[in-house]
């Protein structure tokens, strides 16, 4: 699920998980090596993400590609304007997995209007911080969630549109 050879990343998926587990991430710059602090929450969610998967007939759906090449899909089931189920799928690094997992947890059970306020800063705070070089992962998760909510709101105005997904 994570990693994509076509993206020409220099860090392989299994290496990334090993580095997250050891809290020592090497920079993808080659000789330049830096240690990046990884919170226990990020490590836990990167190695064992929750809220991952698809919803068969989602009320809201979004597929977003970040500037780094990572992609994230968000699936929402909404009842009485409350997100009763939020799931995601991604092709990305461990940080993207952690951010997607946290964003879905923060959204599930909340009113749609409340969930629109989940931004990258709230995701980073809930994860206990992210290295600056990976804050864009939280931006990707918040953007995908926001677009799935917008899809739900758009399709909710005319129920027949739910039959015609952008997928």
Keywords:
Sufe protein. Chain: A, 6 helices, disordered N terminus, alpha+beta, 167 residues, globular
Short summary:
The chain has 167 residues and is an alpha+beta fold.
Topology, please?
Blueprint: H1 13-22, H2 40-47, E1 60-65, E2 71-79, E3 82-91, H3 94-107, H4 112-115, H5 120-126, H6 135-157
Antiparallel strand pairs: 1-2, 2-3
Helix pairs in contact: 2-3, 3-6, 5-6
Characterization of the model:
The chain has one domain (40-161): Sufe protein. Chain: A. It is 40% helix and 15% strand. It has 6 helices and 3 strands; from the N terminus they run ααβββαααα. The chain has a 3-stranded antiparallel beta sheet with strand order 1-2-3, with helices on one face. The longest helix has 23 residues, at 135-157. The two termini are 18 Å apart.
Number of extended strands:
3
What is the global morphology? globular
Into which percentage range does the β-strand content fall? 5-15%
Helix percent band: 25-40%
Mind telling me which CATH architecture this is? Alpha-Beta Complex
Mind telling me the C-alpha Rg? 16 Å
Across the major sheet, the strand order is 1-2-3
* SSE order, one letter for each helix or strand: HHEEEHHHH
CATH top level assignment:
Alpha Beta
Poorly predicted regions: 1-12, 23-34
Number of domains: 1
